[in-house]
């Protein structure tokens, strides 16, 4: 996704903040979740709140929204101390929190959702005409493409999000908290949301923006505040923001320590060979080779065909042409089951829809691919399966109370490690990773990089699709670049071409000049 970074930064902070949270402390069962946290927000700014999962961001925002009550500390709105005892009080003082899981009534109209709990009346009857007029006005101010009489179940997720914003504007909210607002949006919908956020900012509304996506923060944030382990670490203004400083503040170590993979100068034997593979549509006939113990990055702009290529290799999509060879032997891969049987693993881009069984326990998710190997005469050896899951939890540092915790109840980073653990359990010879760190916090990213490096050190051949250029450069022994469905360039290895972000983009965009070693 390409995000417009040419945002207008508001004037220097005015004397009176719209929000001050001072010395906020919260304990659960005696365990501190927040310790003496401060946060200051000014009108007309987008203020990013960042930190790893468990840093205390959600707890702090739930205190602001009245879902929790702080054990100690003070909240001021426009310089006046307020007591926010419940969500209703938060709304009355101008605070709205838009959760990642949207709070809408799908069977009601847009107008009915906007005025839910605050309906207008004329005498003994609802004043539907007036509510529809006001709803239309607020929707128009957001540039919404839907109307006041549309049924909410017919709206997209992005439109439902706009509906929640419209409700906040109707309630005269001056502080809007958005928690991972792009998590369920397409790239186009996300760009549209950013336009809405910029308009809200220009209207003087303060936006507290919670996201793990650095690119969004760089594009939108006027200031950033960082929490770590329940404590306030500090704030940065827009001109102070850098990846190095953010990483240092969030995880306590520098960017130089982030990518643990040591680039390989020598590689093992060829393990996977792909010859002339194509789907006849998006992916043109393609050849590539992976060697034992190397990490090959697959880069390119959105729509270049990276995901489609990896799915063809894995048998998730039908081939129009081409062959896949493993250790020199031609494979017959007509389905993912054939690829798994041959020792090829695949972590998909969308872990929730395509990778995990969310209602299933974490232990069963890990052991799923091992059932055939560790079962005899159709009988599952549960002792062996449990041992596989327990070993994986320890090896991958998956944070869960027990193996029965459902996959859906884990953080994004732990869900991703769950998927990686599933493939490690079958001891793959080839692992295809599609956006392996998408939607996880920085601490989890670092752990996933360690796992990937460890797998390569064990001789696994890895093809890693990623849209993050820093990740591609930091983790790859070689980089293959796709453009418009075909491989157009290779960096590193024996090419003599440096693996740099500039060289990757030169190939991805069709620029001709790259820098040699």
UniProtKB/TrEMBL annotation:
The keyword Disulfide bond does not apply. Residues 19-254, 262-509 form the ABC transporter domain. Keywords: ATP-binding, Cell membrane, Membrane, Nucleotide-binding, Repeat, Sugar transport, Translocase, Transport. SMART domains: AAA. Gene3D superfamilies: P-loop containing nucleotide triphosphate hydrolases. The keyword Cell membrane applies. It is a peripheral membrane protein. It is found in: Cell membrane. Its main location: membrane. InterPro entries: AAA+_ATPase (IPR003593), ABC_carbohydrate_import_ATPase (IPR050107), ABC_transporter-like_ATP-bd (IPR003439), ABC_transporter-like_CS (IPR017871), P-loop_NTPase (IPR027417). GO terms for cellular component: plasma membrane. One of its GO terms (molecular function) is ATP hydrolysis activity. PANTHER family: CARBOHYDRATE TRANSPORT ATP-BINDING PROTEIN MG119-RELATED, D-ALLOSE IMPORT ATP-BINDING PROTEIN ALSA-RELATED. This is D-xylose ABC transporter ATP-binding protein. It comes from Stenomitos frigidus ULC18.
